[in-house]
Design goal:
alpha+beta, single chain, 20 strands, 33% strand, elongated, 9-stranded mixed beta sheet
């Protein structure tokens, strides 16, 4: 606890410095660390010791959290804090800054920013960038098909239509409309199937053609509504046994992004209606399971849309001791 007391003394000294140089306090506060004995650390803006617990405000998650006092390496934390107060580039502080910067860059590479405050998931998937009431939003699109088993979760389903099963096969989707509706006529679709947990390998098996390049692998197709179902495409079989797709592919641009993501955007505005993202398993075969969406400017808000983050650290729930300290 003597080391803990020294930490509190350092914090008090930093607060006194804030009267003369508040900008230096801001820089120090943002760089504070609670270094744990396992070698990891928590980025914090403030913290206090409460008996056998340490309560801190996470700079990453924007909320109050706690860790056992016994888990904190107070000597390492003290060295880090002293370096921030004096401005000396101590090795521990420099190394932690490098690690934090590397982690930030790696996270940004896995989760590219597609709009201010909006980043893609680092777990992959298929997302549609929409604009609803002048606000950008991200909507995740799930796979759909006539016999999709919802218990598969986020696993990717792949099954090429067998051209020998009949002279004509439809890709049918249940329901008259897709669950996700775009309110803009030129939505951007972001696709990353390789990061999905449980995704099968896309390497070609013996006797089958190699996978298409990522920029040619995904297409937008028009979906025709019929009664209470939708037909996403038709696979026709010639007398020779060779199949020919008639999916009514729409002209698009495909742009590779960091983290394995592909951005697919229609070249021309899409008329109101139903559409789907199809995965080409070869030049003449298509995945039976597609990612369906609609275009309807008058549609209600999409459920579970991800909106831009605007974090504002709470002030009212701060401990009374810290509130008093901040006012000094």
């Amino acid at each position: 606890m003597k080391s803990a007391a020294r930490i509190l003394a350092i914090i008090a000294y930093v607060v006194l410095l804030a009267v003369a140089a508040p900008s230096s306090l801001s820089a120090q506060t943002l760089a504070s660390r609670l270094i744990l004995k396992d070698g990891s650390y928590q980025s914090v803006t403030k913290y206090e010791i409460k008996g056998d617990r340490v309560r801190y405000f996470s700079a990453e998650r924007g909320e109050w959290e706690e860790v056992p006092n016994a888990m904190v390496d107070w000597d390492a934390t003290q060295k880090y804090e002293q370096g921030r107060v004096t401005g000396a580039p101590i090795p521990e502080a420099v190394e932690l800054d490098k690690e934090l910067d590397a982690e930030r860059k790696a996270a940004e590479a896995r989760s590219p920013q597609v709009a201010p405050g909006l980043r893609l998931s680092d777990e992959g998937g298929v997302f549609l960038l929409d604009t609803y009431q002048n606000q950008p939003q991200l909507d995740e699109i799930q796979q759909s098909g006539a016999d999709v088993n919802r218990s598969t979760g986020s696993n990717i389903l792949r099954a090429a239509i067998n051209p020998l099963a009949g002279a004509k096969q439809n890709i049918e989707l249940p329901g008259a409309h897709a669950k996700v509706q775009s309110h803009t006529a030129v939505p951007s679709l972001y696709i990353n199937l390789e990061a999905e947990p449980g995704a099968p390998a896309t390497a070609a098996t013996p006797g089958e053609p190699p996978p298409l390049p990522s920029t040619e692998r995904f297409k937008i197709i028009r979906v025709e509504s019929k009664s209470n179902k939708r037909v996403a495409g038709t696979l026709k079989t010639a007398a020779t046994g060779k199949s020919k797709t008639d999916e009514r592919f729409l002209p698009t641009t495909a742009t590779p992004m960091t983290g394995g993501w592909i951005k697919v955007t229609p070249i021309d505005p899409l008329p109101a209606g139903e559409y789907a993202v199809a995965e080409m398993l070869g030049k003449d075969s298509i995945n039976l399971y597609v990612w369906d969406f609609g275009v309807n400017p008058n549609a209600p808000a999409n459920s579970f849309a991800v909106k831009p983050e605007t974090p504002e650290p709470p002030k009212s729930d701060a401990p009374k001791e810290l509130q008093k300290r901040e006012k000094q």
